[in-house]
Write a structure and sequence with these properties.
Length: 262
């Protein structure tokens, strides 16, 4: 699928085919995409625990449900719990930066060398950074980049996915992540039961409300010609609207087929 179509087709899918398993190959592909994401200092803070719904005892599956995700957890065959491993920088002590030096990604033209990493970057920049209050935020941001690549790959693989918060205390009890892993989100994955369009693209704020040109308060003007080009490429699609009869009918049909309340 073309990249712009992948972005355009992504929806938070909340209706899955509960009895259709997801191939392990596809889950690996999703995780491979996360692993290849850009990451500051090559640290790669993102960690994941992959849980197959049908391998969880019923009481553990029930325990993981939250008021906003109970049904989705029940329908999705695969749950990927994402965490941020804050200890990785001090464990690696610049080793992954040295790898980038060795393969030429960080070049001597820009001042990089193994000595620069060992004597300056790690002891004077990276190690002190891990003691600042902004460190978890910076690490979590890079985790978000990797999660986004995984999320888009789900749709490229013909799957659907929905990001959700989860109860970290219960997850700690069930899955035993290390103490210094920060819980982020769970990605609920499966084959969508709803149409790929899922009622249209969901509402978003106005473009010029979000983005500024050169300074705050000066909107980055949206070019209608670019919008039209992106519509043709499948990135911008028919927007979801209120009282969409087609979508309402789809939800009712799904509820009847899956035995859900309406």
């Amino acid at each position: 699928m073309d990249f712009k179509q992948v972005i355009g087709r992504r929806r938070s899918i909340r209706f899955f085919e509960p009895e259709k398993p997801v191939e392990r190959e596809k889950i690996q592909t999703v995780l491979e995409a996360a692993r290849l994401a850009s990451c500051a200092v090559n640290a790669h803070w993102l960690r994941a625990i992959v849980v197959e719904r049908d391998k969880l005892p019923p009481e553990k599956l029930e325990a993981m449900k939250t008021p906003v995700s109970a049904l989705i957890i029940e329908l999705a065959p695969v749950h990927i719990y994402f965490y941020c491993d804050l200890g990785t920088v001090n464990r690696m002590q610049g080793a992954r930066l040295r790898e980038l030096v060795e393969v030429g990604a960080l070049a001597p033209t820009h001042g990089w060398s193994r000595k620069f990493v060992d004597e300056f970057v790690y002891p004077q920049v990276l190690k002190p950074m891990t003691d600042t209050p902004t460190y978890p935020v910076a690490a979590a941001m890079d985790c978000g980049v990797a999660i986004c690549q995984a999320l888009l790959t789900c749709f490229d693989e013909g799957l659907g996915a929905c990001m959700s918060a989860f109860n970290p205390a219960i997850a700690k009890e069930l899955f035993n992540p290390p103490d210094d892993w920060i819980p982020l989100y769970v990605m609920l994955v499966g084959y969508p039961a709803e149409s790929w369009e899922a009622g249209g693209q969901r509402p978003r704020p106005d473009f010029e409300e979000l983005y500024h040109d050169a300074e705050y308060g000066k909107p980055f003007r949206r070019d209608p010609a670019v919008v039209e080009k992106l519509k043709q490429a499948g990135m911008i699609q028919r927007p979801a609207g209120p009282n969409n009869a087609e979508r309402i009918a789809e939800i009712r049909a799904l509820a009847e087929r899956l035995g859900l309340p309406t």
